[in-house]
Amino acid sequence: MKDANYLKAHNARSLWHPMTAPADSLANPPTIITGASGTRIRDIDGHEVVDGVGGLWNVNLGYSCQPVKDAIAAQLDRLPYYSIFRGTSNDCVIELAEELRDFFAPDGLTRAFYTSGGGDSVETALRLARQYHKIRGEAGRVKYLSLKKGYHGTHFGGASVNGNANFRTMYEPLLPGCFHIPAPYTYRNPFNETDPARLAQLCLAALEDEIAFQGAGTIAAFIMEPILGAGGVIPPHASFMPGVAEICRRNGILLIADEVITAFGRTGAWSGSRLWGVQPDFMATAKAITNGYFPFGALMIAEHVAQVFESDETGRAAIGHGYTYSGHPVGAAAAIACLAETRRLNVVDNAAARGAQLWAGINRLKDRFDVIGDVRGGHGLMLALEMVADRGTKKPADKSVPARVQQAAYGAGAMVRVSGPNIILSPPLVLTEADADIILSALETGFASL
């Protein structure tokens, strides 16, 4: 490996980073991570910190999950790749599909379509939703509804249903027929409603109104995250997702649960849909399915949807969609091992316990530092602190403020993530009590430095 000075000098010379301006990477060289173990990451200068970001919401089992690494190595020796396009399959994808069917049985999901990651899983759901309606003779159902503040990846379909202008404006025009309703974001919403239950009802009424305006017979699907992640960790009231599901069922609209972040235990439940007692028609998964060790995803499909495809006699059910790496045997082997470890360690209980510890801690920080306008979480290891210039007006803090908090927290022992005015926490689900204390202490140092 090249020495540290070479790597620091050349990082942005020939490399563009996602989610930032190329010039910013030149002006503000990123932290170069060169090692990791357990819940800790280590940079090129040897500074080691607790990873409060969990890679990118995906390293649920930490960086030392030996069974997953062993499964990858063994599969590379046995079958490093083969396609599962028509006419061929492999043993790993079949075994994994059965494991996923068992894991998601309480969610009513019984079939898997393999992808290369979360954006691909969302794209697959959007496409199959339209095809489902065409098979059933309702070809006019082509539109999509989603939430403002929602995030569904950066493919053209995902960006079109995204509810954040940052991922849309520079790439428009996007997919036509995508419409958004207000998110149940208690701290900021167009209704000026601060009661979560009442806000949920107002947002549901907005959904009903949009369906009536567009015409239910023109809408293919509604897509939502059970807890909004990249939009700032926005958990809805417990009545919201069940209300969405009921409205969708009544109007013949499919419900796509984007669980790229929330599946496999992050919310303190095995899925975000299960947290709210909802069975979606599709569930997009990825990230923690392989603990971040291999790019892989799966769209899970409800039994009643599967039956429409599998019993079709119209000739419309052939799936003209797929990826070179759909069902990659190495990814499938990693996922099988990852599911086994996820169950063995029962990470869902630890996510709930450590999430409660961090939730109490960030609320104590809010009591001390006026720059924290809102804290959100309370459901496993998904938490956020929103910074403001003034609590009374809720004016967002200058973008330099969360960056300064992040930098000071990193120096004090924890990596945290900046997203707009928010500091987001999404650490591994194997986080220890001591790790959580380090994150809280580092954040305290970060806010005290302002």
Low-confidence stretches: none
Largest sheet: 7 strands, mixed
Which CATH first-tier class of the largest domain would you pick? Alpha Beta
**CATH architecture classification of the largest domain:** 3-Layer(aba) Sandwich
Say which CATH homologous superfamily of the largest domain is assigned: Type I PLP-dependent aspartate aminotransferase-like (Major domain)
CATH fold-level topology of the largest domain: Aspartate Aminotransferase, domain 2
Total of DSSP H or I helical runs spanning 4+ residues: 15
Which structural category fits the helices and strands?
alpha/beta
Order of strands across the main sheet? 4-10-9-8-7-5-6
Percent of sequence in beta strands: 15-25%
Q: What would the principal axes of the Cα set say about the shape?
A: globular
- Integer-rounded radius of gyration: 22 Å
Overall mean confidence score, pLDDT: 97
Task: Report the end-to-end length measured between terminal Cα atoms.
Answer: 37 Å
Estimate the helix proportion, in percent: 25-40%
Provide the number of structural domains. 2
Descriptive notes:
The protein has two domains: 31-64 and 346-448, Aspartate Aminotransferase, domain 1 (Alpha-Beta Complex), CATH 3.90.1150; 67-345, Type I PLP-dependent aspartate aminotransferase-like (Major domain) (Aspartate Aminotransferase, domain 2, 3-Layer(aba) Sandwich). It has helices at 4-10, 22-27, 54-57, 66-78, 91-103, 118-135, 156-161, 196-214, 240-250, 272-276, 303-310, 329-345, 347-368, 400-411, 433-448, and strands spanning 33-37, 40-43, 48-51, 109-115, 143-147, 178-181, 219-224, 254-258, 282-285, 297-302, 372-376, 383-390, 395-396, 414-415, 417-419, 422-425. It is built from 15 helices and 16 strands. Helix 4 (66-78) runs antiparallel to helix 12 (329-345), helix 8 (196-214) runs parallel beside helix 9 (240-250) and helix 13 runs parallel beside helix 15. It is of the alpha/beta class and 450 residues long.
